[in-house]
Structures are given as structure tokens and as C-alpha cells.
Write a structure and sequence with these properties.
Helices cover about 65% and strands about 10% of the residues. The protein has helices at about 1-10, 15-25, 30-35, 40-60, 60-70, 75-95, 100-145, 165-185, 200-215, 225-235, 250-260; strands at about 150, 155-160, 185-190, 220-225, 245. It is of the alpha/beta class. Helix 5 packs across helix 7 (about 100-145) and helix 6 (about 75-95) runs antiparallel to helix 7. Strands 1-2-3-4-5 form a 5-stranded mixed β-sheet, sandwiched between helices. The N and C termini lie far apart (about 95 Å). The chain folds into 2 domains: about 1-140, Globin-like, CATH 1.10.490; about 150-260, Transcription Regulator spoIIAA. Helix 8 links the parallel strand 2 and strand 3.
Length: about 270
């Protein structure tokens, strides 16, 4: 059945293609006039047929799906092209007087099986592609959510805004350690002014970051500790005795300059 179907398609591919293109161009659906602009439609038409020709030679569904993936079309946009090819094959097959009904039915059944498998694989491919995009976006957002700001030579600020979970804590740790080593930073100011919630878990993550900075040769300070955060720290019994804590970022910068044997002086002209 497979050989008969592939052989028929190869022998009558030009006829099928002519009917296929005529059918798609005559289609008044949104496929051609809405979501796909005319030039994109023509390009998709041309390239899809090229990939169909390739498939008839290699018969590899996965490779076919990967080729279709290069068109940057959604599965929903591609389905009409694939389904129209099946319909066009039926029209051409119907006009073959030398084909017995049983033989024609077998060819169509196998073609339908191919189209069904292709549709499923297209949906899987699209889902995998979107999952990858979402993953990359998540990484980008995590990096943006924890910027590294050099304020002076050997002094950097890490503003932490929002909430901290395990994944974000890991990202903060990686970003901070990389920044300390690459910038040869001596002092890291961890600004928690924008921190939404401080509980024992978040405090544990912050202490881990502080300890890691110390291990790679830097000194860290927690700055931006608002009165309510200070009260929470006391209520939770969090031990920050080994961590320098300051109320504002300004105080932290002044202390960092002191630690690096520098200071800010007012110049009077």
C-alpha cells in the first residue's frame, strides 16, 4: 500500500500539484486573505510543494516536519496546505480510469494515514518550539530582573525587586558570582529596597548569596532594609550578625567607598 501510494504520487505529482495550487488559490478563506499576506501565501505554497517532493524521496516524517518548521508558520496555518494536497490527490485519482476502486481506496487510506501522522508531528514540533521560546524568555527575564550595576571601580550594586523563589535565587547567585569575578569587585551591595516579602526561606537564600560572595573574595552588604523588613528579621529570629546591614543604598555606597579606601568630598569652587 505504501509503495503503491508513493508510486502514484510520483507519477502524477504534476497533476496533483496543479489541482492543489488551483484549489488553494481559489480558496476565499482567511488562510489566503487574512493571517497570511499574499506574498507569504505564494512563498508558503512554493516551499511546501518543494518539501512534499523531498518527502516522496526520503519518506521521513520528522525531516518533513523540520523542513516545514523553517517556514515559520503555525500548524493551523499549514494544515490547509496539507489537507488540500490530500483532496487534490483524490481528484486526480478519481479520474484514473485504469484504477480499480479497491486500489484507489488503499492509496487514499495510506495517504490519509500519512496526513494524520504529519498533523500530529506538526503539533508536537510546534509545542516543543514554543516551550523552548518560553524557556529562553524566562531566562532572559530572570537576567533582566537581577541586573548588575557597577557604581564605582570594584563596587557593584545588585537591586533585588519582587519575590525570590528557589530558581530566582539560583539565578541571582550565578549572576552575582560571575560579576564579582569578572569585574574584580571587592564590595557587593545587595539592595533589597524593592523586595516584596522576607521570610525564613528568602533570608536563607540571601545569606547563601552573601556567603558565596565571601568565598570568591568579595565583601557583601545588605542595604535598603526598610523598618518593616527589619522588624520581620527580628520576629523570625534570622541571624544576620555576620552580615553588614544598612538602611539605605546611599549609606551602603559610603561604606563601600570606605572599605576600598575612598570617600566622596564636596568640592567648593
Amino acid at each position: 500500500m505504501e509503495k503503491a501510494t508513493i508510486r502514484f504520487l510520483k507519477e502524477h505529482l504534476q497533476e496533483v500539484e496543479d489541482v492543489w495550487q488551483e484549489q488553494l488559490r481559489a480558496d476565499e478563506s482567511e488562510m489566503a486573505t487574512g493571517s497570511l499576506q499574499e506574498e507569504l501565501f505564494e512563498k508558503t505554497l512554493e516551499q511546501t510543494m518543494r518539501y512534499i517532493r523531498n518527502f516522496l524521496n526520503h519518506l521521513d516524517i520528522q525531516k518533513f516536519v523540520q523542513e516545514l518548521g523553517t517556514l515559520n508558520r503555525t500548524a493551523v496555518q499549514l494544515f490547509p496546505f496539507i489537507e488540500a494536497f490530500e483532496t487534490s490527490t483524490y481528484y486526480v485519482l478519481r479520474n484514473q480510469k485504469d484504477k480499480k476502486p479497491a486500489e484507489s481506496m488503499e492509496i487514499l487510506q495510506y495517504l490519509r494515514k500519512i496526513v494524520h501522522s504529519l498533523s500530529i508531528e506538526l503539533l508536537k514540533y510546534e509545542q516543543e518550539r514554543y516551550n523552548k521560546i518560553i524557556h529562553l524568555q524566562k531566562i532572559a527575564l530572570q537576567e533582566l530582573s537581577t541586573p548588575i550595576i557597577p557604581v564605582f571601580d570594584r563596587v557593584i550594586v545588585i537591586p533585588i525587586i519582587g519575590a525570590i523563589d528557589r530558581d530566582r535565587a539560583k539565578q541571582i547567585m550565578e549572576n552575582v558570582l560571575h560579576a564579582v569575578v569578572s569585574n574584580k569587585s571587592e564590595v557587593v551591595l545587595i539592595d533589597i529596597t524593592g523586595l516584596l516579602v522576607l521570610d525564613t526561606v528568602v533570608a536563607h537564600h540571601l545569606i547563601e548569596v552573601v556567603n558565596a560572595i565571601h568565598i570568591v573574595g568579595g565583601k557583601s552588604m545588605l542595604v535598603g532594609i526598610r523598618p518593616e523588613i527589619a522588624q520581620t528579621i527580628v520576629q523570625l529570629g534570622v541571624n544576620l550578625s555576620d552580615v553588614t546591614t544598612l538602611g539605605t543604598l546611599q549609606e551602603g555606597i559610603e561604606k563601600a567607598l570606605e572599605e576600598t579606601n575612598r570617600c566622596i568630598r564636596e568640592v567648593i569652587h
